[in-house]
Amino acid sequence: LIRKALMIYKVFLIGENKDIDKASFQKLKSCVCGREADNAYDAIFEEYNKVYPDVVQHIKDNQPALTESEFKVCVLSMMPFSVKEVADILDVSSAMIGKSRTNIRKKLGMTEARGSIEEFVMANLHQNL
């Protein structure tokens, strides 16, 4: 997972041309690496929300039918994590994540059974701005 944390950091810095302070990144990295496994999602969400606040707010505003767990899976699906890594972060089974992603796609109104949640949310966000 350390590679994924570094990828996220790279996306934050290069993709959005924004900076995250080193302390925040260290917190994110330590959570993703399992040293603070109980709150890995909270730390990842906090850092993601700092850099992409409109995405998180857009999901909250436009998808009220998502359950709390589906919202978490949706947010983590916006990052370069595999289904297994999302399952590890949330401490659930990969099958549970697969089921949640299917429910999310239905609630988002996605027509492709295996379509990218990230691409769909970002395209929808840009249409609404």
Brief descriptors of the model:
mainly alpha; 8 helices
- SS class: mainly alpha
Oligomeric status: single chain
Distance between the termini: 33 Å
- Give the beta-strand count: 0
Q: What does this 3D model show about the protein?
A:
The protein has 129 residues and is mainly α. It has helices at residues 2-15, 22-32, 40-51, 53-62, 68-77, 83-90, 94-108, 117-128. Helix 2 (22-32) runs antiparallel to helix 3 (40-51), helix 3 packs across helix 4 (53-62) and helix 5 (68-77) packs across helix 7.
Could you write a compact summary of the structure shown?
The protein is mainly alpha-helical and 129 residues long. The chain has helices at residues 2-15, 22-32, 40-51, 53-62, 68-77, 83-90, 94-108, 117-128.
Annotate the secondary structure layout:
Blueprint (H helix, E strand, L loop, with lengths): L1 H14 L6 H11 L7 H12 L1 H10 L5 H10 L5 H8 L3 H15 L8 H12 L1
Helix pairs in contact: 1-2, 2-3, 3-4, 5-7, 6-7
